[in-house]
Amino acid sequence: MITTELSNIGNIIQTQREFFQTGKTKEVTFRIEQLKNLKQAIIEHEQSIVEALQADLRKPEVETYLTEISVIKDIDYAIKHLQNWTKPQKAAVSWDFFSYSARIYPEPLGVVLIIGPWNYPFNLIISPLIGAIAAGNCAIIKPSEIASHTSDIIAKIIAKNFDPAYLAVIEGGVEASQKLLAEKFDHIFFTGGTAVGKIIMAAAAKYLTPVTLELGGKSPCIVDTDINLEHTVRRITWGKFINAGQTCIAPDYLLVNKTIKKDLIDGLEKSLKEFYGENPVNSPDYARIISQKHFDRLVSFLKDGEVIIGGENQPSERYIAPTLIDNVSLEDSVMQEEIFGPILPIIEYTDIAEAIALINSRPKPLALYLFSQDKNLQKQVLQETSSGGVCINDTVMQVGVSSLPFGGVGDSGIGNYHGKASFDTFSHKKSVLQNSFWLDLKWRYAPYQGKLPLIKKLLG
Ligand code: NAD
Questions:
Q1: What percent of the chain has pLDDT over 70?
Q2: How far apart are alpha carbons 360 and 346 in whole angstroms?
Q3: 189: which strand partners?
Q4: Would the pLDDT of 91 be above 70?
Q5: Would you list the DSSP string of 217-234?
Q6: Which residues line ligand 1 at a C-beta cut-off of 6 Å?
Q7: Which of 56, 176, 224, 297 is the most exposed place for a label (fewest CB within 10 A)?
Q8: 150 falls within a domain
Q9: For residue 150, what are the domain limits?
Q10: Catalytically annotated residue among 171, 248, 338, 348
């Protein structure tokens, strides 16, 4: 394990500040070279990454490629667009500024801190890191200690391929985080739970450090009657039970039109069998719960409502079967906390207004899913609810579209990233106004006597 001494954190940051001051990271060619290095390093370590995720989450290899190693696509996207993103943008000026020109220069922030969670422990470190590199920053990276094997492989990849004066990994848990948060950074990018997000923001406030907080919450999934049932159940099953439900944008609970509820439950049962067989414990395609603590928390939800599918669990394996719960009350803990596991409560509604009212009575979610072909219903849900993002007639796939900024709103987060949004998150937009010397009208200079009518006209 490559662990950088926690006591050395101040020195590492200082070294990065000195390196940043050299201006090297501002060169676009340098940034592209580093992105290419990162891609190459990931490709070289593919097998170790797969093994680390197997060890941490028993993540199936296909899921590791689909949701973790797939970040190399984000690297390609950044490399392809970087020249364009870094160009100063011309800004329009009004007629009374006729002798001026205006431009917006994106400039790197400096030394940034990236703190990651355990559920997509590779992707959720590398993806923001791509933005930090593309925007020309130095970075300190703190992966989650709970996915310890993945943390180790990230530390190894970075130490082997990058100078710590540019990119450095600090491994460890809360203590490491706290030591880092005691230092001044130019930006903190945090992915994790809402409670810890508040701690991060409080620590950042001390230095007025800007933050991006990618948090969680309970993402609802509305199912109307105007759907293709077969496609709907497959897409819900996949989005909910991939990574054993430990996905920040997994559908947390279903809000189902009463008239289609039975068909939906039958369909979900069928698709679960199609995906994971008669007994999912034997499926190589079904992940495990990250830790005993998280397992115990999830098992406690099984006493809420009525388990209609699944419910089996094995502590020794940290296995919980894909589970559907009916007849839950909104006061049950399964409906109060983010579930973050393979348990799906079902709540029925008669009128869409009830579903919308329930969503709006709770903190704004990270994602909202709607299955319906009804254009008016789509419009109503989009207009009357607020969430980090929305995906209609599918689940989770919105994270894969580089042109869509990804992030929360309200309790589900602050700021966003992916594609150009990642570059923007790690850049300062410097506004530059330039005048010329060919003319110098005196209307704004003292003495002011007699100038007010003209000024009023200009304001008019
Ligand atoms: P977490 O908040 O417990 O931990 C995240 C990181 O914060 C870890 O690196 C951890 O070491 C550090 N940390 C924990 N306690 C800390 C403290 N007291 N002070 C400073 N640092 C601390 O989150 P997690 O359990 O790793 O991840 C699960 C949560 O993350 C869920 O709520 C999920 O919805 C959310 N999440 C959000 C996204 C997103 O993109 N919005 C993605 C993945 C996970």
A1: 99
A2: 18
A3: 114, 212
A4: yes
A5: ---EEEE-SSS-HHHHHH
A6: 115-119, 124, 142, 144-146, 173-174, 177-178, 191-193, 196, 199, 214-216, 248, 338, 340, 366, 408, 413
A7: 297
A8: yes
A9: 6-215+411-432
A10: 248
Q: Indicate whether 5 pLDDT > 70.
A: no
Smallest CA-to-CA distance from 162 within 25, 313, 291 is with 25
Cβ-Cβ contacts under 8 Å for 51 (sequence gap 6 or more) = 149
- Residue 378 · residue 232 · CB < 8 Å: no
Residue 221 annotated in active site: no
Please report the pLDDT score of residue 1 as a whole number: 39
List 68, 214, 338, 348, catalytic entry: 214
pTM over 0.85: yes
Q: How many domains does the chain have?
A: 2
Half-sphere exposure of 391 (CA within 13 A, CB side): 23
- pLDDT tens digits along 410-447: 999 999 999 999 999 999 999 999 999 999 999 999 99
Same domain, 371 and 349: yes
- Beta strand pairing status for 187-191 and 111-115? parallel
Amino acid at 408: G
Look-up of token digits 């984000």? 74
Do residues 294 and 341 touch, judged by C-beta distance below 8 A? yes
Position 451 in a domain? no
Q: What is the pLDDT of residues 11-64, one digit of tens each?
A: 999 999 999 999 999 999 999 999 999 999 999 999 999 999 999 999 999 999
